[in-house]
């Protein structure tokens, strides 16, 4: 009984960390429904994890169902693009899978037990594994969120498609590696899983930075185009000003001539002068 409580508590903590990571990364459409979205992820993950652990042998099925469910919840409650929601939900589950597998194999090397034995045993080693896994998962999510806040940029549609494709392929590959390693008691697969997971994260960072540079270049191009437009407008305004200034100068000369004629009481000539001006216009 006590071990069931410990396992359920560890699962609940895992679900809370995952829900917090997804919520902070994507943000809610409306803060009023933030609690509902957060609770939905926690309840769904907790229920589906405990249910599938009892009835499904393939670990990949659990991860796939959790990812699909979290994406659906994210679509309902959260902002960001569909592609980003898929990536973030997948990243959360894949990260937990990698951390769990690495933790089991490290403890296996330290204490001399196989991975299946560590999974099934109850005792101090199991508690250590649960604590280490959840703590590392929590720290990893904090680091990703910190990077996200510092690097405020987004990928375009094509870049997200490429990244999501890599994520989906990696999901099934890593889950299959995990099941094979557990079934055949392999520890040599540690580097392969770590390499795939690390490579996936590096691809995301690289593509994000490339996207940011592209956005900067695009913004510079837009700024240059706007500057050219402003220059053309300034040139046209200066031209109009010069024309108005010239007209004003001519009008001043005409008025002086008319005034001079009037002062000399040459009314007929002044009238002819005005009529001539009107005809010429």
- Structure class: mainly alpha
DSSP helix count? Answer: 9
> What is the number of strand segments?
0
Global geometry: rod-shaped
The whole-number mean of residue pLDDT values reads: 76
Low-confidence stretches: 186-191
**What is the rounded distance between the termini?**
106 Å
Question: How is the main sheet built?
Answer: none
Order of helices and strands: HHHHHHHHH
Structure, briefly:
By secondary structure, the chain is mainly α. It has helices at about 1-25, 35-55, 60-75, 80-110, 115-120, 125-150, 155-185, 190-265, 265-280.
Characteristics:
mainly alpha; 281 residues; rod-shaped
Describe it.
- There is one protein chain.
- With 281 residues, the chain is mainly alpha-helical.
- It is 87% helix and 0% strand.
- It is built from 9 helices and no strands.
- The longest helix has 74 residues, at 190-263.
- The chain is rod-shaped.
- The N and C termini lie far apart (106 Å).
Describe how the helices and strands are arranged.
Blueprint lengths: L1 H25 L7 H22 L3 H19 L4 H30 L3 H6 L3 H27 L6 H28 L5 H74 L3 H14 L1
């Amino acid at each position: 009984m006590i071990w069931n409580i410990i396992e359920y508590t560890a699962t609940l903590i895992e679900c809370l960390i995952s829900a917090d990571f997804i919520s902070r990364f994507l943000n809610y459409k409306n803060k009023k429904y933030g609690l509902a979205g957060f609770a939905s992820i926690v309840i769904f993950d907790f229920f589906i994890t405990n249910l599938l652990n009892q009835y499904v042998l393939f670990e990949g099925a659990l991860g796939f169902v959790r990812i699909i469910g979290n994406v659906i919840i994210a679509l309902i409650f959260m902002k960001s693009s569909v592609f980003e929601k898929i990536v973030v939900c997948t990243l959360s589950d894949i990260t937990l899978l990698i951390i769990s597998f690495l933790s089991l194999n490290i403890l296996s090397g330290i204490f001399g037990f196989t991975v299946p034995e560590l999974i099934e045993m109850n005792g101090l080693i199991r508690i250590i594994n649960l604590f280490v896994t959840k703590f590392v998962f929590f720290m990893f999510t904090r680091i990703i969120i910190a990077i996200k806040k510092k690097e405020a940029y987004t990928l375009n549609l094509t870049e997200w498609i490429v990244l999501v494709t890599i994520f989906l392929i990696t999901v099934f590959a890593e889950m299959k590696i995990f099941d094979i390693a557990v079934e055949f008691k392999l520890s040599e697969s540690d580097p392969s899983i770590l390499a795939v997971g690390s490579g996936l994260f590096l691809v995301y960072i690289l593509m994000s930075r490339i996207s940011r540079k592209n956005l900067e270049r695009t913004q510079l191009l837009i700024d240059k185009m706007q500057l050219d437009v402003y220059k053309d407008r300034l040139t046209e305004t200066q031209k109009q000003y010069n024309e108005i200034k010239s007209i004003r100068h001519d009008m001043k000369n005409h008025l002086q001539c008319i005034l001079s004629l009037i002062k000399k009481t040459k009314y007929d000539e002044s009238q002819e002068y005005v009529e001539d001006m009107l005809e010429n216009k």
